[in-house]
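4.2 Preliminary Data

To establish feasibility before requesting continued support, the project team ran the inverse folding procedure on a target of 139 residues. The structure was first converted into the token representation described in Section 3, and no sequence information of any kind was made available to the design step. The complete token record follows.
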């Protein structure tokens, strides 16, 4: 994603979860993309008001305490948790970020379907290119 944004002339900063001053660095971002792998890692302290937050993380919540911390009284999440015994979530703490961010991708259902769609598109393109190259080499 960083390389794609650079190709569009964006200024990109890449950080590690252990980077010093991470929250301060993230608060400068107009677009914040998180792929840390830790449920609720990105809190309201990380988000610039009206920023777009893209949550790429995929984590499993195993306890009711964790669920309530991240989703407060979200009855749909609670029902899902009660039914399955777990709940999927991203890296962003939605209860803290939703009131600050201009937009927040949901987990599940946010970037996952887009990733699958682009993988399928690239697979079809690769197949077409291979077929064209195969016909050229036979000629």
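Position-by-position output of the design step:
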């Amino acid at each position: 994603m960083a390389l794609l944004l650079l190709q569009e002339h964006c200024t990109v900063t890449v950080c590690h979860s252990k980077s010093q001053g991470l929250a301060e660095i993230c608060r400068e971002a107009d677009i914040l993309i998180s792929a840390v792998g830790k449920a609720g890692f990105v809190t309201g302290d990380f988000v610039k008001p009206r920023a777009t937050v893209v949550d790429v993380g995929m984590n499993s919540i195993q306890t009711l305490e964790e669920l309530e911390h991240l989703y407060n009284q979200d009855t749909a999440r609670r029902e899902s948790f009660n039914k399955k015994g777990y709940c999927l979530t991203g890296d962003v703490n939605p209860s803290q970020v939703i009131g600050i961010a201009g937009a927040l991708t949901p987990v599940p259902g946010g970037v996952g379907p887009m990733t699958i769609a682009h993988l399928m598109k690239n697979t079809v393109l690769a197949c077409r290119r291979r077929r064209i190259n195969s016909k050229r080499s036979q000629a």
